DNA sequence: TAATATTCAGAAAAATTTACTGTAAAAATA
DNA sequence: TATTTTTACAGTAAATTTTTCTGAATATTA
């Protein structure tokens, strides 16, 4: 599937604000409702638009600590990795987990209320996983940028 | 502002799918339209709900490479940091940038079409910033988890 | 106990999305 | 080259959703 200039304009708008009405979009890109509607539906159907979500304010929810954890496993084989992955998927405080190249195995991003919660998470949830060998933590002091907008 | 159980239920639903109708939400949590509408509006007004966005599919947009960069600045003072921050905000491929504690200064997450694009980004955009002293890159081999859903 | 807020239900109005009809331009085919 | 087919779009009407309004029930406060 090829995205033409109009598709990209629509995607750029919807990435920033999914609550724009079709009419708003139509006006912004000088089209009528029909093509905008059809294109959005097509983009949804093709899976280019994966989902629509609400972005909540961490601070106002009392989530005041973000950390990156570099995790090394005891071994790199399939079963060990899969076991670890499954545990991570069940940890709601882990918002990001990627298997990476380099001197460790996984890069995690974790969001928590405070340091005490992190201590608990580290001791009672992450470090006790049988697959985990090493954890190296970096604490976020200040968030410069955080966006769901992809460059298109 | 205190969130009661009903607010949290609404937030949990909207975090996963912002295209649920008020009626859908009302049905799921056994309420009528009015309180759901009023609560959502209040959550928006208070800034608990920050925005609504569309999540796009990286792969289908030809974005096949994700990397983490650990960046060290030449100095840690305010002007140097601010200069760096401003540049980062203007780089659309940088989707995440956090000032962190530890053996380097910033943790970046960058999304790009391929290795060639990363080479270009590294050489022509990141490493030439006057504030940057050191860059350490980790390539994502496989994405295990990536969510905008906060634990509430 | 009365007055005031707060929360919610139901209904009507306004706005948006969806579906339908048709036209013009571009592309494909004979 | 002419004809058919496809594609993209405009306009309108129906269906759905959001928004607004009215009022009742419960809890809070004076």
TrEMBL record, chains A, B:
GO cellular component, one term: cytosol
Keywords: DNA-binding, Transcription, Transcription regulation
CDD domains associated with the record: HTH_ARSR
SUPFAM superfamilies per UniProt: Dimeric alpha+beta barrel, Winged helix' DNA-binding domain
Source taxon at top rank: Bacteria
A single GO BP: response to amino acid
Pfam families linked to this entry: AsnC_trans_reg, HTH_24
GO terms of molecular function: sequence-specific DNA binding
Gene3D superfamilies associated with the record: 3.30.70.920, Winged helix-like DNA-binding domain superfamily/Winged helix DNA-binding domain
Name of the protein in question: Lrp/AsnC family transcriptional regulator
């Amino acid at each position: 599937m090829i995205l033409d200039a109009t598709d990209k304009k629509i995607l750029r708008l919807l990435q920033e604000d999914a609550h724009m009405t079709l009419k708003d979009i139509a006006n912004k890109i000088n089209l009528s409702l029909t093509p905008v509607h059809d294109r959005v539906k097509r983009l949804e159907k093709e899976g280019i638009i994966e989902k629509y979500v609400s972005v909540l304010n961490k601070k106002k929810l009392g989530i005041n600590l973000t950390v990156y954890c570099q995790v090394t496993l005891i071994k790199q084989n399939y079963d060990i990795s899969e076991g670890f992955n499954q545990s991570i998927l069940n940890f709601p405080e882990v918002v990001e987990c990627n298997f990476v190249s380099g001197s460790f195995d996984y890069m995690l991003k974790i969001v928590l209320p405070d340091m005490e919660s992190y201590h608990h998470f580290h001791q009672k949830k992450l470090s006790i996983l049988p697959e985990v060998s090493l954890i190296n933590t970096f604490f976020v002091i200040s968030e410069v940028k955080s966006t769901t907008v992809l460059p298109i």
